[in-house]
């Protein structure tokens, strides 16, 4: 039996690619304006209607939550709103999914960790967010996991794609405006192409819809690691520009309202144990993204 997907946040960067990754399958991908996860009645109606439609069509329903408050710096002074979207909303969604026996995949972030690690974070490692955004995302994870055994959390990091704003687009724009760029070289992570992540989530949806029970917290990022400076230099290379135009600097040179994790690498071991194909190496994915889109 094939699956059907409900994707809250369906017009965002990841939601856009989840629709593409699902191919010809039944996908309902409302924007955050069309389905406000903080509206309990709207969430209840959406899940019930989706579950009935999918099952009437002979499909197994799965919800993939791509909706989130992602303005990391703004969340420092807007934590109540971030909490409503990142914690309370997913909690409502998870409860309604459990009520209708619909598996839920909830997308989370590396920001739930303190960022002071020296080896890739495993799903079970102690959390310790240092920003409002990270705190609200961790609270969302807790609510999702408490709702029932058919809900999963998938953490990712450093996501970029064709839809919406992201680091790749910012660097490509600045490359045309400045002779040199200074980019931090003391923060380490794994760039993740949203289309690769979307394909991974669709594969996971198939596993849980078929009755599989992988570990309930998983990590899915591009393979390997780099710094923001290394990432920017790779973007310059894909643009056919001299990577040496990107100059390394330190986090202290660019103070931000929200602290950034110094180390954001996430282990994919649990993902592999679930029988899922690891996302490709970040550098290979970046080349593929540029081959697919002029600027991903």
Q: How far apart, in Å, are the first and last alpha carbons?
A: 33 Å
**Could you give the order of strands across the largest sheet?**
2-1-3-4-5-10
Give the mean pLDDT.
96
- CATH architecture assignment name: 3-Layer(aba) Sandwich
Number of helices: 9
Summarize the biggest pleated sheet.
Answer: 6 strands, parallel
Task: Explain what this protein looks like in three dimensions.
The protein has 296 residues and is of the alpha/beta class. The chain has a single domain, classed as 3-Layer(aba) Sandwich (Rossmann fold), CATH 3.40.50.720. The chain is 39% helix and 15% strand. The protein is built from 9 helices and 12 strands. The chain has helices at residues 13-21, 40-56, 79-99, 132-146, 167-175, 194-209, 228-238, 269-273, 282-292, and strands at residues 3-6, 26-28, 60-65, 104-109, 151-156, 159-160, 181-184, 188-189, 192-193, 217-219, 226-227, 246-249. Helix 3 (79-99) links the parallel strand 3 (60-65) and strand 4 (104-109). The radius of gyration is 19 Å and the shape is globular.
């Amino acid at each position: 039996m094939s699956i059907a997907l409900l994707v809250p946040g369906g017009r965002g960067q990841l939601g856009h690619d989840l629709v593409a990754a699902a191919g010809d399958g039944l996908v309902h991908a409302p924007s955050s304006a069309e389905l406000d996860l903080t509206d309990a009645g709207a969430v209840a109606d959406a899940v019930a209607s989706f579950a009935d439609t999918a099952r009437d069509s002979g499909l197994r329903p799965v919800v993939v939550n791509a909706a989130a408050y992602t303005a990391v710096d703004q969340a420092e002074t807007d934590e109540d709103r971030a909490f409503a979207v990142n914690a309370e909303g997913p909690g409502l969604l998870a409860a309604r999914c459990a009520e209708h026996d619909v598996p839920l995949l909830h997308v989370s972030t590396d920001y739930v960790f303190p960022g002071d690690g020296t080896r890739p974070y495993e799903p079970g490692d102690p959390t310790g967010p240092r920003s409002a955004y990270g705190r609200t995302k961790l609270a969302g994870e807790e609510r999702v996991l408490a709702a029932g055994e058919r809900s999963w959390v998938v953490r990712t990091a450093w996501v970029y794609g064709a839809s919406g704003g992201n680091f790749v687009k910012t660097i490509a724009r600045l490359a045309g405006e400045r002779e040199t760029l200074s980019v931090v070289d003391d923060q380490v992570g794994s760039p993740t192409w949203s289309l690769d992540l979307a394909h991974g989530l669709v594969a996971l949806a198939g596993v849980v819809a078929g009755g599989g029970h992988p570990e309930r917290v998983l990590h899915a990022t591009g393979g390997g690691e780099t710094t923001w400076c290394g990432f920017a230099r790779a973007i310059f290379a894909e643009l056919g520009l001299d990577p040496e135009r990107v100059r390394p600097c330190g986090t202290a040179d660019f103070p931000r309202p929200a602290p950034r994790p110094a180390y954001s690498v996430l282990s994919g071991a649990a993902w592999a144990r679930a029988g899922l194909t690891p996302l490709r190496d970040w550098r290979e994915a970046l080349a593929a993204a540029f081959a697919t889109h002029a600027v991903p």
